[in-house]
User: Fold this.
Amino acid sequence: GDSVTQMEGPVTLSEEAFLTINCTYTATGYPSLFWYVQYPGEGLQLLLKATKADDKGSNKGFEATYRKETTSFHLEKGSVQVSDSAVYFCAVVRSRGSTLGRLYFGRGTQLTVWP
Amino acid sequence: DVKVTQSSRYLVKRTGEKVFLECVQDMDHENMFWYRQDPGLGLRLIYFSYDVKMKEKGDIPEGYSVSREKKERFSLILESASTNQTSMYLCASSLNAGWAYEQYFGPGTRLTVT
Assistant:
């Protein structure tokens, strides 16, 4: 079945360090891919998305490229800030053959950024 | 902006009580979802609904039921609360058309069963 495997945390970085959180997926057809972020005490927010191969999603300095050949969607940021401390979730949904739009989430990666 | 609201941010209930968690969305979304979130386990889908009065079991439906009488409202019911249902509960909604299916989440309800 559809699934997502993402890098386990926690990840601890100093401010201005480079961030990579790995995500690989298993899904049939032509899935869409998402990164969600959850700040302390809040629900999940969509961070970025990509809907076809080689698409690059970007938002708030974060980027991820949909790599169909490696079934990956790694999240990157060139210079993290303390305010980026949160839990990050990778997710996949089939774009065809499904009318329900069910997302499959990874287990989440806790990021802590120190000043 | 899409808004998904949940009836309570924090809730404390006793074992055996019947518990209702309410979720309302204001964007006319067809799909609605209930998840629970536990440390180390990520998000697990309890139930979802793609239309009024329609429901589908997710991965962990045992001990829960749902109700969707109106398009904008999706209720999660714990028939007889138990301590192992202490968790964060998240509601989400999405369109059922197009190619993106991104889900919009509420702020969550932290339920403690004592």
